[in-house]
Amino acid sequence: MEGLFFNIHSGYVEGIVRGYRNSLLTSSNYSNLTQCETLEDLKLQLTPSYGEQLANVASPFPTSTIAAKATEKLVQDFRYLRAQATGALAKFMDFLTYSYMIDNVALLITGTLHERDTKDLLERCHPLGFFEGLPALCVASNIEELYSIVLVETPLAPFFKDNLRSADLDELNIEIVRNTLYKSYLEAFHEFCTTDPELSGTASAELMSDILGFEADRRAINITLNSFGTELSKSDRKKLYPEMGKLHPEGTLMLSRADDPEAVRLAIEIVGEYRSFFDQGGIGQGGGGIGGGTQKSLEDVFYQKEMELAKGTFTHHFTFAVVYAWLKLQEQEIRNITWIAECIAQNQKDRIGNYISVF
Amino acid sequence: MATQHELDELQDELNLLIISYLDLFDEYQASRAELSRALSDGFFNLAQANFNAPNRVRYGEDMYDNRMKALRGVGIVVDENDVTAYTLKDLTSPPEVGTPEKADPEATSNLDGSDLGSDKEKISKSADQGDSDTPNTKPEGSEAALTLVNPKADPLRWFGILRPMALGTAQTNFVHSLPPIMKLVSTLSDIEYHEKSIRSLRQTVRELRKELGVNLIDESVEEPETIPGLDKLSISTDKAGDGIIDYDRSEDSRAAKGG
C-alpha cells in the first residue's frame, strides 16, 4: 500500500531519478577518462553523458568550462524534477536548494565586502541557489540590515532569525553567518524529514536522518580543523556545530574544546565508524588517493563515505532520499571530471586516479 | 712587450671566468627547476582545493578580484659591473619600515603563469631604480618578503576564514615561486656580464698570442660559438661583439603552465 500511495504523487519523479542514476559515470567510464591525453579526448569521452552541453564548446577550452557545462546539466535536470514534484516532495526539493542559497548569500556578502562588482558576483552564484532578492544583498553593511532588508523575504529567514546578532560584516562574521545558517538549515531539514506527516516513519525519514546526521558531523569536524590558527574563538565555534548527528552532544563538546588535530581525533573516536577516518586520511594532505592507493586526505574519506551513503539510498524504494542522493552523486561526478581534466591539463597523470567513484 | 708569463696569467684568469660562467648556468638550471616545481605544486594544490571545496566555490581565475593591488614588488640594484640584482619587496609594509613603491599597473606582470585566482601574487617591476639603497632591497629581503607584514592584505581572506587547507598550500607554493624568479633574472644578468668579460679577455689573449706568435692555428676550435651540452642557452655574437642570451621560450611557457 505504501508504494501505491507514494507512486500516485512521487512515483514519476523517483523513476526519473533512478534513470538519472543509471546515467552516472561508472568506474569503467572513469578508467577511460583517465586514459585521455588531451582535454579534447576527454570531451569526446564525455559525449554520451554531456554531449549536448559540450557540443558547442570550441577548443582550446579551460577546465572550468567542463565544470560549468556539467553543472548546467545538473541544474537542467534538477529543475525538470522540481517542476514535476508536488506536495512534500516539492518541499523536500526546495530544502535541497536552500544549501545553495546559503552559499550564494555568503559569496555575495563576501564579494561586497571586497568591493567586487555585483554583476560579476551574480554570475558566479550557483543557479540552484538563486532567489529574487539575491542582488539586493549587496546593500547590507551589517547583519541586522542583511536580515531586515533582504533575507526576511526569503526562504532562509527562519534559519536566520534565531541566530541574529548585531555585528558588522567582516570575514569572521560572514563565516559565522554562513555556518550558523547552515547549522539551522540542517536542523530544519532534519526536522522536516522526521516530523512531516508524509515523511514521518517512512524510509525517507530513516535514510535522510542518517545522511543529514553524517553531514552535520562532517561539518563539525571540518569547522574545527579549519578553525585552528584563525580568529574564530572556541565559544563562537561551538555555536556553529549542528545539534544533531552521531557526534552530538559528547563529541561536539569535545570538538569545541579541541586545540589541535589530535584532540579532534580523540573527539571523533567516540563514534565507531569515524574511528578509522583519521587513520585513513591525513589532515590537510594535498594529495588524496582514493584510486591511486596513495595517502588520502580526510576530505576524501568524507566524500567517499558520503558517496557510499548516497549509493545505499538507491537500494530502497518509495523514498525521496534518492533525489538527495542523486544530487550529491552528480555533484561528485562533476568534481571528479574536473579533477581528471585538471590532471590532464597539468600533465599530473600520477594522481589522476584520486577521483571518488562508487559505481 | 708582452711576455709568456702575462699570457699564462690571462689564460688562467680566462679559465676561472669560464668555470664561474658554467657555475652560473648550473645555478640558472637549478632555479628553473625550483620555479617549475613550485608552480606545478601550486596549480596542483589549487586543483585539490577545488576538488575539496566545501562551499561549491571554484577557486581560481573565476574568483579573481581585478582590482587587486600588488602585494609584492621588485627592487632592482645595478652594481658597478652592470650586473642587475632583483629582490622581492613586501609592498604592504608600512612606510617607516621601507620605502614601498606604488605598484605601476602597467608594469605589473603575473609570473605564476596565468590569471589564476586568489593565491596569485603580482610582481610589480619598479620603474624607479634610484631607491637601490633602501633597506628592503638587500638580497635577504626576498625571503623576508614571503611573509606579509600586513596579514589583512592576504588575498586568502577573500574566501573566508574556514577555507580548504589545500588552498593555503597552493598560495604558499605560488609565493615560494617568487624567489627563484628573482634568482633566475639576477643570474641571467650575471651570465651576460660574464659573457662580456670572457669575450673581451679572449680578445686580449688573442692579441697577445698574435704578438708572441703562438698557437694561432687552432684558435677557431678554442672559441666555439655555442657551448656544447647547453642546448637551452647559447651564446651568439652580434656585430658589436656582445654576448646575447637566447633561451628556449617554449620551455618558459611550459614552466609557467606549471607542468
UniProtKB/TrEMBL annotation, chain A:
GO CC terms: proton-transporting V-type ATPase, V0 domain
Domain of life: Eukaryota
Subunit organization: V-ATPase is a heteromultimeric enzyme composed of a peripheral catalytic V1 complex (components A to H) attached to an integral membrane V0 proton pore complex (components: a, c, c', c'', d, e, f and VOA1).
Keyword Transport among record annotations: yes
Family classification: Belongs to the V-ATPase V0D/AC39 subunit family.
Gene3D superfamilies in the cross-refs: ATP synthase (C/AC39) subunit, domain 3, V-type ATP synthase subunit C domain
Protein name: V-type proton ATPase subunit
Record key words, sorted: Hydrogen ion transport, Ion transport, Transport
Gene that specifies this protein: VMA6
Role played: Subunit of the V0 complex of vacuolar(H+)-ATPase (V-ATPase), a multisubunit enzyme composed of a peripheral complex (V1) that hydrolyzes ATP and a membrane integral complex (V0) that translocates protons. V-ATPase is responsible for acidifying and maintaining the pH of intracellular compartments. This subunit is a non-integral membrane component of the membrane pore domain and is required for proper assembly of the V0 sector. Might be involved in the regulated assembly of V1 subunits onto the membrane sector or alternatively may prevent the passage of protons through V0 pores.
Molecular function GO terms recorded: proton-transporting ATPase activity, rotational mechanism
UniProtKB/TrEMBL annotation, chain B:
Region (Disordered): 89-146, 240-259
Organism superkingdom: Eukaryota
InterPro entries per record: Vma22/CCDC115
Gene Ontology CC: one annotated term: Vma12-Vma22 assembly complex
Biased composition (Polar residues): 126-139
UniProt record, GO biological process: vacuolar proton-transporting V-type ATPase complex assembly
Ranges of Basic and acidic residues composition bias in the record: 246-259
GO molecular function, one term: unfolded protein binding
Name of the featured protein: Vacuolar ATPase assembly protein VMA22
